[in-house]
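Hi team,

Filling in the usual template for the complex we talked about on Friday. All components are listed, including any nucleic acid strands or ligand strings, so the model treats them as one assembly.

SUBMITTER: L.P.
PURPOSE: interface mapping
COMPONENTS: two
RESIDUES: 714
SEQUENCES:
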Amino acid sequence: MSERPRLRRAAALSRLGALYGRHLARRGALRLTRHGADTEAGLRRFDELYGPARITALSAGEREQLGAHGRCVACGLCGFAAPRAGYVRPERLPSQLTRSLPDLWVTRDLPLDAVDWRAAAAVCPTGVPLPAMRGFVRERLAREGVEPPVPRSSVPLPGTEPPTAPPAPPPVVG
Amino acid sequence: MPGTQPYDVVVVGGGITGAGVARDAALRGLRVLLVEQRDLASGTTWGSSGMIHGGIRYLERDWETTRISCLDGGHIQRIAPNLLFPVVFLIPILPGAKRGMETTEVGLEAYDRYQPFKAGRPHVRLDRAAALRLEPGLNPALVGALSMDEWGVDAARLVTLNALSAREAGAELRTWTEVVGLGREGGAVRSVRLRSRLGGGEETVAARAVCNATGPWASELCAMAGVRMRLRPAKGVHLIYDRRITNVALALEAVDGRGLLLVPHANATILGTTDDDYYGDPEQLEVTEDEVEYILQATERVLPSIRTHRIAHANAAVRPTLHEWRRYEDDLTRDYRVVDHRDDGAAGLVSIIGGKMSMFRKMAEDTVDVLLRVLGRPPVACRTHLVPLPGGGSPVDVPELASRFGVPLAVAARLALRHGDGAETLLEGAAAPERQAVVCECEPVTLAEVRHSVRHEQVERLEDLYRRTRCTGGACLGMRCAWPAARVLAQERGWSQRRTEEEVRDFLDSRWRDRPAVLQGAAAAQEELYRGAMCAMGDV
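RESULT (copied from the run log):
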């Protein structure tokens, strides 16, 4: 099969154009019937698709706090001010355990409340809000649960099949 | 010419393309040597945005390319399910945007047709209120947003697994080994002269074919065979944050209209990239303050609070494009070409140029098809989409793994991500105290994993460990773990104290190069303290 890129581009844009027309007609009809219902419907749908993977909303308070979480420079001073509780050395809260929002569940068995976060925060040279970070983890887990994110199946959704005949490779020069 | 049996193919270049070609060729029964002048994934792949994506932009040129790209993304997802993680984009629509809500949604409606090929989900339309509830940090002036999902992947780990799979299939790997010459016999390229960068001198190996998968160094390698290939290299810079600063990825637009991406990438954030012509040494790249500012300005239009987040470090890499590419841009439906240099007077040399990581498997398949023809062999079916990469065979129950081996969930979860079903073997083979002893605090990476990686994953130098395990890549920027990690290397390799000190010094120097443009305030002072302490302690 020889490549005819300009024709393919024209075909691609033509398909998009046809889709655009149908899209506008559909949007027009939706506006007549669902005016004002888009916000909750959109959030519900997003949560349905991505909630199991813990790709979920941030609250306004969480957004405000997140910038401060990254202040940790791993100086280790907090470890002198507040003893560890099992696996939880104070510096592990900012530098390890809170790096991934979908993976906060890994803290579920850790004795986070056994650490004196105020004492640790008092010596932090960059102002990492350690007590607030502990609260951040608690509140987020209370909202999302403590189970691991659900891995997405690698099987294609029904109705899709890989091609039986692979397309031609790109032209080889030489 | 040496007296040893020639390799069928010497693959030059240990990035995603070269590793993919080596794997495919080995799985098809060819005798393969993969050589890489530095470490696996240390070239262009190092600057990857870390995504296996379906090429939505091709919908404006050729829907077939998007379909193939999504199909191949599905193959990659199936052979390495442990390594890929969902990246969910919000495409915020700001007033006056190049593409408005309806135009963008039409593109996504088309893309939705191919999402199932890679276990993707259909898009969601979000009005302004919904978008701001999902991510309160967005520019409140936005009109709405649309979601779209792709897969994220640890690019360096993907390269490693391809290389290890090639080795399992009989290929030989040599890193820190540069090609210093190509030899001819009867006009055809028939040998490769190698020089180890770790000492050991030069050596010539015989090859029936040579695959040039060197990316930005492609023209240099071609020149060794007397072939002229002009490249138009483009430098790309990414900023790396030490955590996810958003839960969703964001599509951004820079001041010059270029698209940038903010990608929450496992337990980090990758933000970029730039695109500037670059004709310097691809091994001597630096990140400039101008580049950092360009990226931050693009981001703050969408996420105004971006400057409240501390950048951990930055990386730069060079993307290779053919010099004549721009002239033929309208003629091309894919970004890569497989070039058989027979008509350039260099039979036996095949170059694979351009492309994107998302299509590495397909690129490798097409390349090996050509190599078989060059070798005069009958066609052999490609199997790379059918054979799982190491660790990709079966799902891992992380809590069960943690409980059985007595390791924290935080450790087990990261082990499962990187090693998949190989995590169990790794822990079984480790001494019990080493399963829990944490070397890299930020990731975390245990002593068991470091030792396993050094023994089994082609680790020659300290910086290689970062690409294998992310050890030294977190908030401490290697300051806490460089020495303990180097000691493991020293034990396993029999290094002297002096050698170990040199390794740590070289490592710190190379990491420092990426950081001056992004270090701020307390982080800069902290780094000076650590470096000073290490110098005093180890006479580095």
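MY TAKE: Chain A touches chain B through 83 residues (CB under 8 Å). The radius of gyration of chain A is 25 Å.

Thanks, L.
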